[in-house]
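To whoever is on call:

I kicked off a structure prediction for a single chain this morning and the downstream step that reads the tokens threw a length-mismatch warning. I double-checked the sequence; it's 169 residues and nothing unusual in it as far as I can see. Pasting both halves so you can look.
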Amino acid sequence: MAFTKIDISELSFNPFDKIGKQWMLLTGGNNTGFNTMTASWGQLGVLWNKNVLTCYIRPTRYTYGFVEEGECFTASFLGEEYRKALSFCGSHSGRDCDKAKEAGLTPVEIEGCMAFEEAELVLVCRKLYSYDLQESGFLTDDGIPEKFFNGDAYHRAYISEIVGVYVNK
């Protein structure tokens, strides 16, 4: 299979299923060093007249440093047959192992960013803005901080322009 760049207007999917149920691999770095992590939180939309992906990464994740240091990162969406690979990449640290190799994924460089040959869809994202979530920002008392953080680090949000859309045909 080979990646083909398409116009973002050609995409047609339910973002709630794509991100929340199918999950994505967020990958920062380049061909000299990179890491990936599974994510199921994010938004797709339009902000500042740009098509954007917003994603969230805890500063304790190994991938955080790669995304923080680089100008771009990718969001790779894989088919259901890669559910075990996605689970592996979400439950193991790249500090301790070569996640791509262990998960059976083949790294590929796209527009100077790393992704995976097995992906059905890759979004190349250029960071525009970041901010840190914090407990004082919650406006409801429905237990979100306790349920999702409970002493863990709060995530950094990255609002990123989608500068490239690739499908694997």
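Update from on-call: the warning came from a stale cache, not from the record. Cleared it. Sanity check on the structure: The radius of gyration is 16 Å.
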